[in-house]
From TrEMBL:
It holds the Pfam family PadR. This is Transcriptional regulator, PadR-like family. Gene3D superfamilies: Winged helix-like DNA-binding domain superfamily/Winged helix DNA-binding domain. It comes from the Bacteria. InterPro entries: Tscrpt_reg_PadR_N, WH-like_DNA-bd_sf, WH_DNA-bd_sf. Residues 7-78 form the Transcription regulator PadR N-terminal domain.
Amino acid sequence: MLELSALGLLQREPLHGYRLKQRLELFMGSCISVNYGAIYPLLKRLEERGYIQVILEEAGDAGSSRKVYGITAAGRERWLYKMLEQPQESWVKSRSRFLIKYFFFSDLNLQNRLLLLEYRLRACEERMKYLNHKEVEYVPIDSYQLDIWKRENFVLESEVKWLSQTYDNLQQEIEGVDSLSEDR
């Protein structure tokens, strides 16, 4: 998820490592853990693979130089691949991955946004089926467990409602674009 996030931010503007870390913490801190021990090795790896390149070296405050990175064409392709991939992973990790992808939705075309929303909706619906099935098998034994059970269902239902509304809005946007092109 860190690679996806870093490439997405670098796609928007060139950044040096410290600024990239700040942006990641600001926008994605609730989804991923960001530390210098991960950022600089990631930048080195992305540069070695040709996904990013140093576009400027600035003098740093402490005398050392600061590298400003920009994304390459190969990096943009890699970012799109990471945006559209759907790895098999835990429920918690898949939620975080989707939120990171959603942050970059404006950088995708409408069809790809719909595709990602459809996938996430299906995952949420499967999770709801699983929880409802497990509810029959397992009954919470105290009020705290019951509260957590209710909270999980509430959060999931809220997410499904939000995803459905977003999907419907995008569908209307597509229909509006289609009707505009028909009028010409």
